[in-house]
């Protein structure tokens, strides 16, 4: 039977399937995370994909030739945040290990301590020097009794040459870890079995600090206010993380006592608040963090609900606005390992950009503002249920709504598609201004001319009229919305341009564009290139890497060597301060334009 | 003018003085710690010394030839415990150091953290890797503010490559330490300026644990009782140590916050109780400690009243009954450094004995029992005010009383002198039994025959009749008292014999006998040799080394290298378990005899 190749965008993955296989089946075979609300029963009509520019339903469409399939729907479980991603292989080498040992029972004439006998059994050698500090006192307090109560057999919990705890009986297979990605908006936690490497559960929650401000600048300012404001932000963060641990351990039917290692990534502000440090100095020139290097915390001295003998490992920062989350992305994507030059973009209120290879790696932060998050947009909203996340200008206007149902607003990826469509149809000029109907010449635009309306005294493009929305108000893209998007995309684009210039390469030399983070994974790459957010030359090289920051945290959790590599990455990366580039203003202004 | 040499015993020191100089002046010139109650005014008659076997007063006696002077009086300040001793030179190399640094003020375009700038300033290098843990979080919490408030100049408190704290302004000269010797009966603390090496103050107190039992066995048993009994003993110990710190810092007009390092020695039982570990397993076969190796404690995690960023360093043990105090003695006496073989005896309820040189070093514990402490002796008492501490059988019976005045009882060194005298005069046989008057043939004993009395149904030697004592009861040495002393001296003598045998040397090969501890420093060496506590062959080689355990703690406090040497000593020493020697019982029984 004949086989055809199906190529999926934006995943950049392909699979060979037998003739007549449905696209849905091909997607399932290749493991693409896609939402089939009716379970593939051909009832709901939600599994829309684009093939040869036409919208099709993946469940109906059969493969009868090689084809390219564009998936742009949002997985239902992804309506709040990006949880799991395709990940690279990691050799398991946990920070903390367990060993069940038989300790020599001492006899008269011996003078070596119980601790020495125990250590000799754990390390199978009498030579190694093992420090003892106050951390070992709780162990020493129970060691003699536990040896006698357990026939001199115990499980030792160790980290390198340090014994962290002892447990009665053989508990060697019970060794869990949790990786945290603390985002400004969302906290994601991955509960992982460190013995098998298996992910037991992924949990997420809104960062409760949002009540102190949506973005890091507001929170930094808040922290600078009253004496203990940043401590309060630290406390609510701890509470939220502990709730995630409770949720994950309950769902997985394990005890939080079995969690011995926690890794943490987050932007520099979240990083500082996690540690209980004020982030106030990060948001003031010269924007430097209080600390960047990796920090190892004894769980006994920190209020995370885990085994008190365990360790919390905080990945390093790079700069005030390039945090441990970016280090996580770089660890997950291994940009430092390869000879070919890659571009990484993690788009958010602060976009982090990295460019380089094993020879040199540049990074910068671009102050995009909140447009991509749907904030300060007339009909804007976060990428939650009810948000229009994708728009297609076909024979008529089509859009998809997260979670289905009537739309409530427009999230960043929807705004991106909308403006990209207006640019493509020649309905706005390169400065982003709506053209008057007579100047719109593209025949494909004819049908959309009537959507250009006056809204609260400014021009706007009507997306959904009031009878079709969930709240009865219309949803549109205003002239101001377009300007906001221009500022956002201009900041990112300028950052990319400056990095490319400083690196001394041509755009075409870039072999791959890695889009990290929630927004980067939901946006339509062609829209992003259309508006100039990403250089057009790179459209075919775009690859979504999911929540790579979280993946980095998970990799650092699974492997002590990879955790060390995070430190090496942070030390290797060269930080470029865009604001100190003399041409920044010019490049930024030019980058806000559209090339029509 | 002619000069003569005066040789002092038991100090083993000599000095050349001009003809006619008083012995008192010679003692003052050479720095012998001796009590002249009337200040040398020739009024009190207390400054007794022995010259050519005759008792003389040091203040009257002039030097008119070379002479040997035996000093056996007790310094008044020594009536409770041994505080200061002659010490060897130690190169100051404190564990914790301070440095006043100017930190680089960052400018725009820099991305290195404040911590990195600070570390670079402290270590004058950008290369070194400095770990950051939760211990640094309190520093990070105040670093940015303190940098800004102090023109980017701070004092860094460091231990090797770890920064422990930061202080505003230049506090580099304020760096104190305290060395503790936790004895079963007495706790001694030495407050030392780590910057100059100067000892500011010595303080001591009764170990409040005495209420839980006079000796370590009773305390171990107490600890094995209720759940938290050993914790209670830990708590009262902490309290007593903190009171000593308060006393020492108040006397020296310094703050306890200036104490950054504390070193601790003690026998294994005290060591465990200090750490909050139960000592109950030490007193049961096979008598092994829970831990022996050196322990470094972060002051923040321990209730010692010192700077919370400081360190508490606990010296290592050797065995269940050879503790960190013995390691302190070995560190102070440097037995491991020299080629010639020395014998060290620290006499107490448990006598610790060490024999050896740089080639090999043996140690053992001899269960002497409480006789040397004056316990379980009919007229026995501790070496406190009112105790007869020395007895001389001259033409009549002479004795000295601690603190002067009427005697109240007999302490260990007095008992030793008394029994030694009875042995020398042939009034008791080699088994320790009083001879009947007709069998006493020594003419010098004639005058003392009438002192042999019946007391509560057993034979006894009357020392002080009831009208001359402070309480109106007579003070005597009974047959049972002699037996108690025989057991005590037999244990020590057997230990010495077994070590010498195992070492494969002859007694004469020993070049020096070092007597450590309070009792060892008060006893009359010739009495000790007379009763066979110390081999007679070694009488001329005896040297008092004072409270060498405390000196060891102080040396370890002043020098990180010496502290490491303590670990090397503990690892080097070979522990000999006397009880497991098949000939122990025979040797012990024979050692209880007197060789008359």
How would you explain this protein's 3D organization?
2 copies of one chain form a homodimer. In chain A, helix 4 (216-223) crosses helix 5 (229-251) and helix 12 crosses helix 13 (560-572). With 596 residues, chain A is of the alpha/beta class. Mean pLDDT of chain A is 90; it is low at 73-85. In chain A, the strands form 6 sheets. In chain A, strands 11-10-9-12-14-13 form a 6-stranded mixed beta sheet, sandwiched between helices. The first copy, chain A, has helices at residues 23-30, 114-123, 137-149, 216-223, 229-251, 268-275, 324-333, 412-424, 479-503, 517-522, 525-530, 548-558, 560-572, 584-591, and strands spanning 3-9, 13-18, 48-51, 54-57, 67-71, 97-102, 153-159, 162-168, 176-182, 186-193, 199-206, 259-266, 295-298, 311-314, 342-346, 350-356, 361-367, 387-393, 397-401, 409-410, 452-455, 458-464, 475-478, 512-516, 542-546, 574-575. Chain A is elongated. Chain A has 5 domains: 3-73, Ubiquitin-like (UB roll); 97-168, Ubiquitin-like (UB roll); 176-314, 2-Layer Sandwich (Nucleotidyltransferase, domain 5), CATH 3.30.420.480; 342-368 and 490-591, Nucleotidyltransferase, domain 5, CATH 3.30.420; 371-485, no CATH class.
